[in-house]
């Protein structure tokens, strides 16, 4: 006797459609979790990078600006004697370090041909130029007479060469000149200051072994668009020629910088600012600087809609969907304090 065979050999169309629908729901849920996780990762990564960029930018600015006007132990009271020829000096030496701070308020996109590389600066931002001396070494022996070459130990931290702007300073005097020659010996370096690059070859006095030699530094901080069209914090070294590596991009994503200057206007200065104002006041009264930068995320499309932000007293709703943060720091000018 033959066994009967079942007539059912597969799934019905309805069963297949139900299975496909359940599969689509499952895949859709997995895709939703993946997209949400990816967006959360993008948000966290961009926020971390934004915070990091803001801290780096403020660190670059505050570290350098604390040195404004430094010229050794006579920083607070000595007006430098400048013999360097302004036409040959790679930095502006008018007034020497008696005017070590230059503020530029609401610059144009072509604020400086050297800094902006044409019209790449971000219009409406602020810029800051400052000067200070970077210490090298003390003089070796006495400097006699006043037109003698300066001698310092070698090697040293400044690597001074011909054409560099150099300072020699003690607690009562400071001279700024252009090095016309800088020999390199095994134990000492001789630095000449002849009249070919200076108004004369005589310093203001005969310095002793207590005097310090410093390399004259001059930098400018500003906001400029990089090659990708993204705003960034840049720094120009005013003491060397402009090249592919000068100015240098420091931190990307910085789209604005606003600076206020704290002026001590008391008849007897006490080192405390009476008010903060934009550039344009008597910069010799400035004892502190308040710097505020606006940093944005590198990626767009992070927020569901444009996120309004408040900066420099105004609330702005951007056209993109980036995240922005404001970083502010007040810097005391150590060499201006009594």
Structural class: alpha+beta
Mean pLDDT score: 86
Helix tally equals: 2
Order of helices and strands: HEEHEEEEEEEEEEEEEEE
Question: So what's the overall shape?
Answer: elongated
Beta content comes to: 25-35%
What brief labels describe this structure?
338 residues; transmembrane helix; 17 strands; PilW; 2 helices; transmembrane; 4-stranded antiparallel sheet; membrane; alpha+beta; N_methyl_site
Short account of what is shown:
With 338 residues, the chain is α+β, with helices and mostly antiparallel strands. The protein has one domain (46-336).
Description:
The structure is a single chain. This protein is an alpha+beta fold and 338 residues long. The chain has one domain (46-336). 17% of the residues lie in helices and 31% in strands. Strands 1, 2, 3, 5, 6, 9, 10 and 11 form an eight-stranded mixed beta sheet that branches. Strand 5 (165-169) and strand 6 (174-178) form a beta hairpin. The chain is elongated, with a radius of gyration of 31 Å. The protein starts with 12 loop residues before the first helix and ends in a 6-residue tail after the last strand. Pfam families: N_methyl (PF07963), PilW (PF16074). InterPro entries: N_methyl_site (IPR012902), PilW (IPR032092). This is Prepilin-type N-terminal cleavage/methylation domain-containing protein. The chain crosses the membrane at residues 12-35. It comes from Candidatus Methylobacter oryzae.
């Amino acid at each position: 006797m033959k066994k009967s065979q079942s007539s059912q050999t597969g799934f019905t169309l309805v069963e297949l459609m139900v299975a496909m629908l359940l599969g689509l729901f499952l895949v859709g849920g997995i895709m939703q979790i993946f997209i949400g996780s990816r967006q959360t990762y993008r948000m966290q990564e961009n926020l971390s990078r934004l915070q990091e960029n803001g801290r780096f930018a403020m660190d670059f600015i505050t570290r350098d600006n604390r040195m404004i006007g430094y010229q050794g132990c006579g920083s607070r009271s000595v007006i430098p004697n400048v013999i360097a020829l302004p036409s040959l000096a790679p930095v502006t030496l008018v007034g020497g370090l008696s005017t070590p701070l230059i503020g530029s308020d609401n610059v144009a996109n072509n604020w400086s041909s050297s800094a902006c590389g044409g019209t790449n600066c971000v219009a409406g931002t602020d810029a800051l130029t400052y000067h200070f001396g970077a210490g090298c070494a003390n003089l070796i022996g006495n400097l006699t007479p006043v037109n003698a070459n300066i001698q310092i130990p070698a090697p040293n931290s400044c690597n001074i060469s011909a054409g560099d702007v150099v300072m020699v300073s003690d607690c009562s005097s400071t001279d700024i000149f252009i090095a016309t020659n800088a020999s390199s010996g095994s134990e000492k370096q001789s630095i000449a200051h002849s009249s070919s690059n200076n108004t004369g070859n005589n310093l203001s006095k005969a310095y002793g072994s207590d005097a310090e030699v410093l390399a004259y530094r001059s930098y400018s901080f500003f906001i400029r668009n990089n090659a990708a069209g993204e705003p960034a914090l840049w720094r120009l070294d005013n003491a060397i020629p402009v090249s592919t590596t000068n100015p240098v991009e420091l931190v990307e994503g910085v789209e604005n910088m606003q600076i206020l200057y704290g002026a001590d206007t008391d008849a007897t200065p006490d080192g405390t600012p009476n008010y903060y104002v934009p550039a344009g006041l008597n910069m010799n009264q400035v004892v502190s600087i308040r710097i505020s930068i606006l940093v944005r995320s590198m990626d767009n499309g992070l927020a569901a809609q444009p996120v309004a932000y408040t900066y420099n007293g105004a609330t702005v709703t951007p056209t993109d969907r980036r995240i922005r943060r404001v970083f502010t720091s007040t810097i005391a000018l150590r060499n201006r304090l009594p």
